[in-house]
Design a protein that fits this description.
By secondary structure, the chain is an alpha+beta fold. It has 6 helices and 7 strands. Strands 1-2-3-5-4 form a 5-stranded mixed β-barrel. Helix 3 packs antiparallel against helix 4 and helix 4 (128-142) packs across helix 5 (184-195). The longest helix has 18 residues, at 86-103.
């Protein structure tokens, strides 16, 4: 059935001598595979629209349980500032890598919005490192290992002073005995990032090197220990 889908190409694989298989995360159907026939030839009208990180409205012949076929595509956002900046492109590829790992377990349609909004913010000039941190934090809910920063895991107290990565869970001043003490600002930001709507962010900055270091430390350790996705 012919239809238009809004999507982002996550990766491309050469197929036969002239075609490609595109894996696209769409708003309408989640993760789908599409054949782009003849797109590797110089004169193909599909050539420019059949590349990784293309964000477009794709006209396809959709097959629910098979390989769909690309008919044409019209870019929604060129993401030019990402594609022409090495560091932004590196972060964008990291977002895609993480999404592909999550899609093995969860094809939630909201993953499309999370990826789309994150890429647009990076393209619009927001700090790509901070967008990545928020993105990584929000993905924990899709992986089924959402942390609770609001209540002590032992007694339920809201007077949380740190998060114990070995349990894992938050601890209040009465239940804490030993281990690393995260700063209140780090815990506050992690709790905020879990539910923040990336599309509505209009200001974004973290000036404390310690806070940035703790955010990266928490996410690396938490992912490595509880998600099966390992950080480099």
């Amino acid at each position: 059935m012919k239809e238009t889908v809004e999507g982002i190409i996550l990766n491309e694989t050469n197929y036969s001598e002239t075609s490609k298989i595109l894996n696209i995360l769409t708003k309408e159907h989640g993760y789908i595979s599409v054949i782009s026939k003849g797109s590797r030839t110089m004169k193909s009208k599909l050539r420019g629209i059949s590349m990784k990180l293309v964000y477009a409205n794709f006209i396809i012949t959709y097959k629910e349980n098979g390989l769909s076929t690309l008919i044409e595509g019209n870019p929604v956002n060129s993401l030019k500032n990402i594609l022409t900046n090495f560091n932004k492109l590196k972060i964008a590829n990291r977002l895609v890598q993480l999404i592909r790992n999550v899609l093995k377990e969860n094809n939630d349609i909201n993953l499309f919005y999370l990826l789309r909004d994150s890429l647009i913010k990076i393209n619009d000039g927001f700090n790509e490192e901070l967008i990545l941190i928020i993105f990584e934090t929000k993905l924990l809910s899709f992986l089924g290992v959402r942390p609770d920063f609001s209540n002590c895991i032992n007694c339920g107290s809201r007077n949380v002073i740190t998060f114990d990565l070995t349990i894992p869970g938050s601890l209040c001043d009465n239940c804490y005995q030993e281990g690393y003490l995260f700063s209140k600002n780090t815990l506050k930001l992690l709790n905020l990032f879990l539910d923040i709507d990336i599309s509505k962010i209009d200001k974004l900055s973290i000036t404390s090197p310690k806070t940035l270091e703790e955010l990266h430390f928490f996410l690396k350790e938490y992912y490595d220990s509880y998600t099966g996705i390992y950080f480099n």
